[in-house]
Specification:
A hairpin with a 6-residue loop joins strand 6 and strand 7. The protein has 1 helix and 28 strands. The protein is globular, with a radius of gyration of 20 Å. With about 350 residues, it is mostly beta strands.
Length: about 350
C-alpha cells in the first residue's frame, strides 16, 4: 500500500469516527414530572445539546428508578412494576413484562446482558419479599425467576450484577447473618448461589452501592458504619477475605464507583462544602481520597446515580437542585477542572432522576 493510500485510509477512519461520535446520544430517565407526573425518557446529544423528551410515563406501570440499558439494538429499562423497551429513535415504547410480586417487584439497578439474555435483580418480591434474581430473553420473551433471595442470603439489592472471572457477583443492602447486607456470587447459568461476605454490626454495612473490580480487588461503599456512621469506601478480595475500610464518608453514597484513568470516581449525596453533595476519587493503588467537585445546589444537589464516561468527559445527574429543584444534567472534565451544568430538569422535561446516563450510537 502506498503512503498516499495509507493516509487516505486513515482519513476515512478518522471521518468515520467523527461521524460516529457525532451521532451518539446520551439517554436517561426521570422518576417524576412529564405529562402525567410519572417520569419521562429522554436523550440529548453527547455534546450536551438537543435535549429531546421521547416518552411520558402514565403511571399505570409505576415510575422508573433504574438506569437504562442498550442491548440488541433497543433501549431497555425498568419501572418499579415493569420491564420496557423503546427504539433508539424514540419510537415504539413497549412494556415487555409486568412484575407481580411473586416474580419480583421494584428493581433499583439496571439490566446486564450475558449470553443472549438480560439479567437483573429486584429490591422486593419473591418468596420472602427480599427480592429476586431474574433473566429475560432479548426478544422480550421467557422471563424467568432464577433465584428467590432469602434473608439469610442477603435481601433487598439496590444495584446491579457484576460479571467477573466467569461469575456474577452482587451486593444486598439488608439481610445476611447480621442483617446488614451481603456480597454474593452465582454461576453465569444462574446456579450455585453462594454468600461471599456478611457485613457485620462493626462494619455498619447496609450497602446500596454495587461492586467494581480494580487493582486486583472488589471495591464498594456502605451506607452505614465507619467513623461517622455515614458509610465508607471498602475493598475486599474476590474470595471474601481481606475486607478493609479504605475511606470514611461523611454522608452515604447511593450510586456505584466507576473506574476511569486508574482512579475510582464516586459521588456523595450530601455534605461537601455546600451540603449539596460531592464528586470524589479514590486511588486504588494507595487508597488516597480526593475531593473533585462540590455541588452548590444551583448546579445540582443530591446525586444518586453513577457517573458515566462519554467522549472526553464524565456525565451525571442529580436528583434535586437546579432552577426547579428537580435535578440537573451535568458534565465534568476528566481532570476534574471544568464542571458544566448542561440542563435544568423541570416538570415538563421530567425530573428527580435516580439513575445514570448511557451512551447509544
Amino acid at each position: 500500500m502506498t503512503n498516499y493510500s495509507i493516509r487516505l485510509a486513515i482519513l476515512h477512519l478518522l471521518c468515520a469516527q467523527l461521524v460516529f461520535g457525532q451521532n451518539a446520544k446520551l439517554w436517561g430517565v426521570t422518576s417524576e414530572g412529564g405529562k402525567h407526573n410519572s417520569g419521562t425518557i429522554f436523550y440529548l446529544s453527547n455534546n450536551g445539546s438537543k435535549f429531546t423528551k421521547v416518552h411520558d410515563f402514565d403511571g399505570s406501570t409505576g415510575h422508573p428508578f433504574s438506569s437504562l440499558t442498550y442491548s440488541d439494538g433497543k433501549i431497555w429499562g425498568m419501572t418499579n412494576k415493569a420491564i420496557f423497551t423503546i427504539n433508539v429513535d424514540g419510537s415504539n415504547y413497549s412494556e415487555i413484562h409486568n412484575f407481580n410480586g411473586t416474580n419480583g417487584m421494584n428493581p433499583k439497578g439496571e439490566l446486564v446482558e450475558h449470553d443472549g439474555k438480560l439479567w437483573g435483580m429486584t429490591y422486593e418480591g419473591g418468596l420472602e419479599n427480599s427480592g429476586v434474581i431474574f433473566t429475560i430473553n432479548l426478544n422480550g420473551m421467557k422471563y424467568q425467576k432464577i433465584y428467590d433471595l432469602k434473608r439469610v442470603d442477603g435481601s433487598n439489592p439496590r444495584n446491579s450484577l457484576l460479571i467477573h472471572d466467569g461469575q456474577f457477583f452482587g451486593v444486598t443492602s439488608r439481610g445476611g447473618q447480621y442483617g446488614k447486607g451481603t456480597i454474593f456470587k452465582l454461576n453465569l447459568d444462574g446456579s450455585n448461589f453462594k454468600k461471599v461476605y456478611d457485613f457485620t454490626n462493626s462494619d455498619g454495612g447496609e450497602p446500596e452501592s454495587g461492586l467494581v473490580f480494580a487493582n486486583g480487588k472488589f471495591w464498594g461503599m456502605t451506607a452505614r458504619g465507619g467513623k461517622n456512621n455515614e458509610g465508607y469506601v471498602y475493598s475486599i478480595s474476590t474470595d471474601g477475605s481481606n475486607f478493609k475500610n479504605v475511606h470514611d464518608l461523611i454522608y452515604p453514597t447511593l450510586g456505584d464507583l466507576i473506574k476511569f484513568d486508574n482512579k475510582l470516581w464516586g459521588m456523595m449525596s450530601l455534605r461537601g462544602a455546600n451540603n449539596c453533595g460531592e464528586i470524589f476519587t479514590i486511588n486504588p493503588s494507595n487508597s488516597t481520597h480526593s475531593s473533585i467537585h462540590n455541588f452548590d445546589c444551583e448546579n445540582g444537589r443530591f446525586p444518586e446515580g453513577n457517573l458515566y464516561e462519554s467522549g472526553n468527559k464524565l456525565w451525571g445527574m442529580t436528583r434535586f437542585g437546579g432552577t426547579s429543584n428537580m435535578g440537573v444534567i451535568f458534565s465534568i472534565s476528566k481532570d476534574g477542572s471544568v464542571f458544566t451544568k448542561i440542563k435544568d430538569l423541570d416538570n415538563q422535561t421530567g425530573g428527580v432522576p435516580y439513575g445514570q446516563l448511557i451512551e447509544v450510537y
